[in-house]
Write a structure and sequence with these properties.
- By secondary structure, the chain is an alpha/beta fold.
- It has two domains: 14-98 and 275-292 and 326-458, Rossmann fold (3-Layer(aba) Sandwich); 117-255, no CATH class.
- The protein has 17 helices and nine strands.
- The protein has helices at 14-19, 56-64, 82-89, 101-110, 117-137, 148-153, 159-166, 178-193, 199-212, 236-255, 274-277, 302-307, 314-323, 346-361, 367-370, 372-393, 417-427, and strands spanning 72-75, 93-98, 219-220, 226-227, 263-267, 282-287, 394-405, 431-442, 449-458.
- A seven-stranded mixed beta sheet has the order 5-2-1-6-7-9-8. Strands 3-4 form a two-stranded antiparallel sheet.
- Helix 2 crosses helix 3, helix 4 crosses helix 9 and helix 16 (372-393) packs across helix 17 (417-427).
- It is globular and about 65 Å long.
- It starts with 13 loop residues before the first helix and ends with a strand.
- Bound molecules: S-adenosylmethionine.
- S-adenosylmethionine is lined by residues 49, 51-53, 77, 79-80, 82, 97-100, 103, 269-271, 288, 290, 297, 323-325.
């Protein structure tokens, strides 16, 4: 069944009423810290994860913590690398980790600025030429906006027939219409078979292709996954050319005069981060982990994962989902038992008891609803392991800074994420928990703004 975003019902929330005056004022004015803000930043804009944060957040924290070029910064839930790019821009070494193959690829590509710009420009010209020739050969001309229908029905432009052959099996028809799909797949073939001067340049083109698949599709990601009215056709050539130009322009500016610093990225599970980051290596961790908001993070990269073959069937999606922290009812498994690690915590029990009570009151018995309380336990249990691992990887006195939101995703029960995570972190051996308000976040579900809060904890010095 197609996934649609259903915010909880518009109920009053006693916790919101109680905590409405909890903070004096936010660290940034409302909305400036949103992920979409990243569109205006060089390199960041190559792929801007809708559930990510604005570069303003890691920049603010690095300033505050007086990070120097001798520091090592890490992000165990790096998404497409916002923290790491901010660190690199300051000449600061960084480490990053994500469970999703596409995000890992995107972050790694965005962090390689040692690219021969002239070679990249020559490859761009050659690929665009090949693509133009191929489009002409198949008689799939560039889109004429006024005449889309006649083009599709026109001579030789039998997109439907071609789409049957070219459509990836995991990609439903309504996600990308036939004509744009055919245009995309033709370009993909050229990109995959081109002889590149080196691997870094190849990655740049794979990145440019992968990141235009979403705008060429009928899908949107924010705030939840959804499908729009189908676009009959899309000028994929134009999208790709513009994307390449922006990427190459950004690289020309970004790489000039900068000292190269190490930015290592890993594909893996933050619950095992010390296997990647090592022990006593990191001065400052800055991240936004998943929060218990019932977001399933592979959904927000589904088009990219499928179109560039990062995940081509349910099995491959499951491998990614199992690496991830449990944050959604579509990502929870019988064998999960991280929840046992925090079973003694009263603050979590209060949340799950209230969810249970409301489920009974509403006679709610659907399969997903039955998983709500297990999910909350698994989420905080998983984060307990993350804190234990962070304690290993941080240097003594090193700080772990997390941006999280409260949630109302399960029967409208208010989950004070930062407050509970602070307790979980202390249980895992971190100290000095401190919570501030980053910004107000407009709620899709009720009249109250939600808090987006910054939790800071430290590894003890001795
Ligand atoms: C809120 S996003 C972080 C976005 C990032 N701050 C940015 O601006 O792009 C959370 C990320 O955590 C990743 N993730 C979820 N569970 C994970 C796990 N167990 N280990 C590593 N990454 C995980 C998701 O794939 C997602 O990219």
């Amino acid at each position: 069944m197609a996934f649609t975003y259903h915010p909880p019902t518009r109920k009053e929330c006693k916790v919101c009423e109680r905590i409405i005056d909890k903070h004096e004022k936010p660290l940034v004015t409302t909305m400036d810290g949103r992920a979409s803000n990243a569109d205006n930043f060089p390199i960041h804009n190559w792929y801007n994860f809708v559930l990510g944060y604005s570069p303003r957040f890691p920049d603010y924290i690095m300033e505050r913590e007086k990070v120097t070029t001798n520091s090592v910064v890490a992000d165990p839930f790096m998404g497409s690398g916002t923290t790491n790019i901010c660190a690199k821009s300051r000449g600061v070494e960084s480490l990053g980790l994500d469970a999703n193959d596409f995000f890992h690829f995107a972050a790694e590509t965005k962090l390689n600025w040692s690219i021969d710009i002239q070679s990249a420009k020559s490859v761009a010209a050659a690929i665009l030429k090949q693509y133009e020739t191929a489009l002409k050969k198949y008689n799939w001309p560039a889109v004429d906006q006024k005449n889309q229908l006649s083009l599709i029905a026109g001579k030789g432009a039998d997109y439907q027939e071609a789409a049957v052959k070219l459509r990836p099996s995991a990609l439903p028809e309504r996600y990308i219409s036939d004509a744009p799909l055919v245009r995309l797949m033709l370009l993909k073939k050229i990109i995959k078979s081109f002889h590149y001067p080196n691997e870094s340049i190849k990655r740049l083109f794979v990145m440019a292709f992968t990141t235009i698949t979403l705008p060429a599709s009928n899908v949107y990601y924010g705030p939840g996954f959804g499908v729009r009215k189908p676009k009959l056709d899309v000028d994929v050539y134009k999208l790709f050319k513009a994307k390449l130009k922006r990427m190459i322009d950004d690289l020309s500016v970004q790489s000039s005069g900068k000292v190269e610093v190490d930015s290592k990225t890993y594909l893996g599970d933050a619950r095992l981060m010390s296997e990647c980051f090592g022990t006593d290596t990191v001065d400052l961790m800055i991240t936004s982990p998943p929060y218990p908001g019932d977001h399933e993070y592979t959904k927000h990269s589904k088009i990219e994962l499928i179109c560039m073959d990062f995940a081509t069937d349910i099995q491959e999606f499951r491998v990614i989902k199992k690496r991830m922290l449990r944050g959604s009812t579509t990502n929870i498994y019988k064998e999960d038992h991280d929840g046992d690690l925090v079973r003694d915590m009263q603050s979590i029990r209060a949340v799950t008891d209230e969810i249970d009570r409301r489920l009974k009151e509403d006679n709610a018995t659907s399969g997903f609803e039955k998983l709500y309380t297990k999910l909350v336990w698994e989420y905080f249990g998983g984060m307990y392991r993350v804190f234990q691992e962070a304690k290993k990887s941080l240097k003594p006195g090193g700080k772990f800074v997390l941006l999280v939101s409260d949630s109302h995703a399960f029967k409208m029960v208010h989950i004070e994420t930062a407050e509970i995570l602070a307790e979980v972190a202390v249980k895992a051996g971190l100290v000095k928990p401190h919570i501030e308000l980053w910004q107000h976040k407009a709620s899709t579900s009720h009249k109250y703004n939600l808090f987006e809060e910054v939790l800071t904890v430290e590894k003890p010095r001795a």
